[in-house]
Amino acid sequence: MKITDLVGKTAFVTGAASGIGRAVATTFAAFGAKVTCADLDESGAQSTVEEIEAAGGTAEAVRLDVSSRVEVDQALDDAAARWGRLDVLCNAAGIFIDVLPSLAADADLNRVMQVNYMGSLYAAQAAVRHMLPARAGSIINLSSGGLDSPKPEQFAYVASKAAVTELTRCLALEVGAANIRVNAIAAGYIDTPMIRRGYVSGSGQLDEGRWNETLERYRRFSPLGMVGEPVDVAWTALFLATDMSKFTTGQTFRPNGGFVMPR
Ligand SMILES: NC(=O)c1ccc[n+]([C@@H]2O[C@H](COP(=O)([O-])OP(=O)(O)OC[C@H]3O[C@@H](n4cnc5c(N)ncnc54)[C@H](O)[C@@H]3O)[C@@H](O)[C@H]2O)c1
């Protein structure tokens, strides 16, 4: 096995039906991992598996609601039993809500925290149980570039991602001695269905004019003049999944086109 690949390893990817999770799952598989593609959207997860298999990889699809601890525990146990081990978890399942701090209702806050934060926590806890006996593993959480550039309407979403970032740091401290690494990716603006949904009109069509204006604005924010693609996040996740990052834990990586540059 080369240090740059995942041959002989297995990965569990949540949110694998769409966008970033799908790109992470297909990339891990392309570099040799056997991948469990978990998502609330079962047919989407199945289509990711078909893409992986068509490219010669190995994967399975699982319907999973990450906000249920019972479902998450079962799905991680099943995946570890099926592949015989669990090396990598990538928590990419997530939802966005657009609500101002002064107007946020309990139901909005509970849902976004339950999926984005508790879902990541449940999966990380289950993964650690499988990784501890092996004394090896990599957990990769999707945080958000929104933490570096606050916007009032993103407050509930970004609060859930701030919690994910803190989970990343504290869990990294707890399990580092067992050679389990925990890192986060605070991606910038990535063109995915999650983002496009904000530009869909009442008729269900993408409002091309508004969407293109937004893309142009975000291109101007990047010194590279680019908006990210899911694969830009997947390459960062690949680095974190392989032994190339064996000295890296508790960190937050920022594939964001240079949109923000924190010290
Ligand atoms: N797109 C961006 O610009 C961006 C930037 C930073 C971080 N992120 C984060 O990256 C992750 C992936 O986002 P994306 O843009 O690819 O979004 P997406 O909407 O394209 O994909 C999210 C996936 O999560 C799944 N999902 C939602 N709720 C779930 C649940 N309860 N259980 C299981 N699966 C569930 C959806 O079915 C979907 O397949 C999210 O955590 C998001 O917050 C995205």
Strand order of the largest sheet: 3-2-1-4-5-6-7
Helix content: 40-55%
Q: Assign an overall shape.
A: globular
By CATH reckoning, the class of the largest domain would read: Alpha Beta
Tell me the number of structural domains.
2
Identify the bound ligands: nicotinamide-adenine-dinucleotide
Major beta sheet summary: 7 strands, parallel
Number of helices: 8
Rg value: 18 Å
Distance between the termini: 35 Å
Question: What structural class results from the helix and strand content?
Answer: alpha/beta
Mean pLDDT: 97
Beta-strand proportion: 5-15%
User: What would you say the CATH architecture of the largest domain is?
Assistant: 3-Layer(aba) Sandwich
SSE succession: EHEHEHEHEHEHHHE
Q: How many beta-strand segments?
A: 7
Provide a short characterization of the protein structure.
The chain is of the alpha/beta class and 263 residues long.
Describe the structure.
This protein is of the alpha/beta class and 263 residues long. It folds into 2 domains: 10-190 and 229-251, 3-Layer(aba) Sandwich (Rossmann fold), CATH 3.40.50.720; 192-227, no CATH class. It contains 8 helices and 7 strands, in the order E-H-E-H-E-H-E-H-E-H-E-H-H-H-E. The protein has a 7-stranded parallel β-sheet with strand order 3-2-1-4-5-6-7, with helices on both faces. Strand 2 (34-39), helix 2 (42-54) and strand 3 (58-63) form a beta-alpha-beta unit.
